[in-house]
Amino acid sequence: MKIPVRQLERHLKDKLASVYLIAGDEPLLIDEALEQTRAAARRNGFDSRELYVVDRSFRWSDLHSDASNLSLFASRKIVEIRMATPRPGDDGSRCISELTERPDPDRLLIVVVGAKLDAAASRTSWVKSIDKHGVLVEVWPIDRAELPRWVQQRAVAAGLKLTGPAAQLLAERVEGNLLAADQEIKRLALIAAGREIDEAEVLDSVADNARFDVFRLTDAVLAADTERAIRVLWGLQAEGVAPALVSWALSREITLLASLQYAVAHGDSVDGALTRLNVWGRRQPLLKQALTKHRGRDFAPLVSHAAAVDGIIKGVTPAEPWEALTGLVIALLRPVAKTH
Asked: Torsions phi, psi of 109, nearest 5?
């Protein structure tokens, strides 16, 4: 059974299935859906949890053995599997399918995938098995047009009063990063003390908030300002900003530049491509400047490079995340080779 994430809480109040698949690339919404499911499990007596993080060295046979061997006096437990992609391989697909199709009243299986389920993944046997015997929760991004409303609703839930223009500005500044928006809303709620926050105060708060330096980083990269980009990147590391947030911001810009370049190369105007790709008005001049600076660059290797860095941060590939991020920034800032 498939349900949208907004209906998960109501579903969990009515019943608890034996298996859940929570999938999507919105970390905040994924984590909240996971916590809602865990809370419902605790209410139903599942008072222990075993976590399995799938990487290249992961042994599915160990998980299958552990999950199947519940002793007579064991407590009810959650078996939680975290995967970076919806491709567990043949062994993983077989293991998840078997656990799904042989439910145990003392075991709750939760599979979390930090990526969207594409058409190919949706047709795999293990996903179909969960869809048939359990619940598939697909987490979709908040639409650009809906983001200001989402910010406003989130603010109300946090006890924060935002003016309409303030909510719009915050939505524009985070540009789809729900985690950054949620953190800023909570921060503003702490300092607001019940009073209403207007656009000017949001602007001041964002300017003083180190978390938003990820956007200063991408601005510096787009402007090809090497010294500033490296300084901001090191500052983000020193501030303890999550590497995943930095990776998201850089990957978004690289993918966007690649899409713009492709559109223009196939006859679209720059302005038309920017509008069609939903680029915020305030950022369009910077993207135009970046396209000019990167004329002649092949973005395909950079897209692959960004994907590899994301894999490092998610633990799929063993390497130091900040070194990988530095390498990605340098690759993007490297001058375009001139052709004759």
From this structure: -100, 125
Specify the fold of 212-333: Zinc Finger, Delta Prime; domain 3 (1.20.272)
Radius of gyration from C-alpha coordinates of the chain: 22
Average pLDDT, the chain: 85
Per-residue pLDDT, averaged over 241-263, amounts to 87
What own/partner pairs with CB < 8 Å and gap ≥ 24 does 164-170 have? 165/198, 165/199, 166/197, 166/198, 166/199, 166/201, 166/202, 168/199, 169/199, 169/202, 169/203, 170/202, 170/206
E-only strand ranges, the chain: 2-4, 19-24, 46-53, 76-83, 107-113, 135-139, 161-162, 196-197
Q: What is the pLDDT of residue 155?
A: 92
- Whether the predicted model's global pTM rises above the 0.85 cut: no
Mean predicted confidence (pLDDT) in 127-131: 94
Superfamily of structural domain 2-139: P-loop containing nucleotide triphosphate hydrolases (3.40.50.300)
Backbone angles phi, psi at 138, to 5 degrees: -95, 125
Q: pLDDT category, 305, cuts 50, 70, 90?
A: very high
Q: Residue 52: beta bridge partners? A: 81
Q: How is domain 144-208 classified at the architecture level of CATH?
A: Orthogonal Bundle (1.10)
Question: 20 or 169: which carries more pLDDT confidence?
Answer: 20
